[in-house]
Amino acid sequence: MKVLMLTPYLPYPLVSGGQIRTYNLLKHLSKNHEITLFSLIKDDGERQYLAELKKYCCKIELFKRTKNPFVLRNILLAGFSPYPFVVTRNLPLGMRKAVQTELSRERYDLIHAETFYMMPNIPDTQTPIILAEQTIEYLGYQDYMKKANPLLRPILALDVMKIKYWERYFWNKADRLITMSEEDKRFIKKELGTPKNISVVANGVDLDFFSKVKKRLPPDPTVLFVGTFKWLPNIEAVDEIVKLIWPLVSRALPQAKLKIVGFSPTKKIQSYTVNPSIEVLGGIEDIRDAFATAHVLLAPIRSGKGTRYKVLEAMITGTPVVATTLAVEGLELKNGREVLIADTPADLAAATIKLLKDTSLQSKLALAGKQIVRHGYSWDIIAQELDSVYKEFKS
Q1: DSSP notation for 363-388
Q2: CATH annotation of 207-376
């Protein structure tokens, strides 16, 4: 099948969750489909990564969006147009026309849009559209609004209303919706209130890459947090760890160490290294090194939707996981079998301490985690599920 895929980022290098997902799906889908990729970039330096993507795409077109999202054009468009800010920052000049030209030149079997805010770049067309929602966008912005400066809340509330309106609008407009979890699927069905054909295509793990990890555990019990800090829930999770969870862990295990790994750590996160037991590594060259030297992954995620790569990657590397219910939402995991689940700072600390002290429990969770990821969350399996959805639209 000929597929036109639209993404709000270049799917390489593998920095964000979206990039990891799209790259791995492209790699597998390209075996059976002819894929043209239209992607947004922030600067021309990203063009160096095209060679990697050309292995899997028959054609690639790039469109510049502003490196700084808060430029006057984006703000004015958000203020004086019906679109919210998350859409206006992803509306590059000329992309909609380029999509229209491409559709008139070539006959495509399918358009695949990653995230609802790519949908305004698609003109009216008879070509079926699949919309993949990596998260429920308005819920994240709604949570941010509630925690923002009270003076900004009225403006942010208006933007959240716009996001909710357009997200629902494009859910209805798409011929098929893809969600990352059954929970997201149920949520959207409830929101729409009408029957909608929704398929679940979860996130996955590159088994070949992560299965090569050999544990090199340090003598001091080591807790790991992994996540890009361009995503607010990760920033909030680290704040909770440092302020509410880590003091309890340190009191019980004074020799314990906390490693915080992820691209773009804020100045506030970097300042946490004033505590000698805390190390902020930022983005590291090979994330497998972080998992290889960690006794436990801690994931106190409290907002956002989708499924968490950090949890799957930890489990396939044999790193036991302590997480909130939300952090493992959408994953077929049982508390005490593949993961320890807790939802208050005190309970998260207690679970972390228990796991650090009990090497047999570490081994039990590590083995069970590896098995469930290997049998249900490899990109081979995930891509086959999306391939099945594609084939439903084969003319």
Answers
A1: HHHHHHHHHHHHHH-BHHHHHHHHHH
A2: 3.40.50.2000
**DSSP label of 46:** G
Angle of the 345-357 helix axis to the 359-376 helix axis, nearest 10: 100
> Could you report the per-residue pLDDT of 288-322, keeping only the tens digit for each?
999 999 999 999 999 876 557 899 999 999 999 99
pLDDT band at 141 (very low <50, low <70, confident <90, very high): confident
Please work out, in degrees rounded to the nearest 5, the angle formed at the alpha carbon of residue 312 by the alpha carbons of 306 and 313: 125
Which pLDDT belongs to residue 107?
A: 96
Q: Nearest CA to 379 among 205, 200, 181?
A: 205
Domains of the chain, by residue range, sit at 2-204+379-391, 207-376
Residue 62 has a CB neighbour count (10 Å cut-off) of 16
> What does DSSP assign to residue 107?
-
Q: Hey, how many other C-beta atoms are within 10 angstroms of the C-beta on 268?
A: 12
Domain 2-204+379-391 is found in CATH 3.40.50.2000: yes
Q: What pLDDT sits at residue 278?
A: 98
H-helix or E-strand spanning residue 28? helix 17-29
CA R_g for the chain: 21
- Check if 2-204+379-391 and 207-376 are the same fold: yes
pTM of the full structure? 0.88
- Provide CB contacts within 8 A for 95, sequence distance 6+: 38, 40, 63, 121
